[in-house]
Write a structure and sequence with these properties.
Blueprint lengths: L2 H14 L16 E4 L18 E3 L11
Antiparallel strand pairs: 1-2
Keywords: Coiled coil
Length: 68
């Protein structure tokens, strides 16, 4: 089975699992870590939109969320 299909199967299994029940190794991911820190953008005017990008791992953790 391809990696993509396996990932889809794992996601579907988690969607169908009872609330609070995690499938396979999801409990063993450990704490998330930031791979690349956001870079400074310099001075901007108030109200001016800016864009930040961050990469975190473990990428395979379907329950990982990032809030700013």
């Amino acid at each position: 089975m391809s990696v993509c299909l396996q990932a889809i199967d794992e996601l579907e299994a988690n969607l169908n699992a009872a609330r609070g029940q995690l499938i396979d190794d999801e409990m063993h991911h450990g704490p998330p870590s930031i791979l690349f820190q956001p870079q400074p953008v310099g001075e901007i005017d108030e109200g001016q939109p800016i864009y930040f990008e961050v990469q975190v791992q473990p990428a395979a953790d379907a329950t990982l969320t990032v809030e700013w």
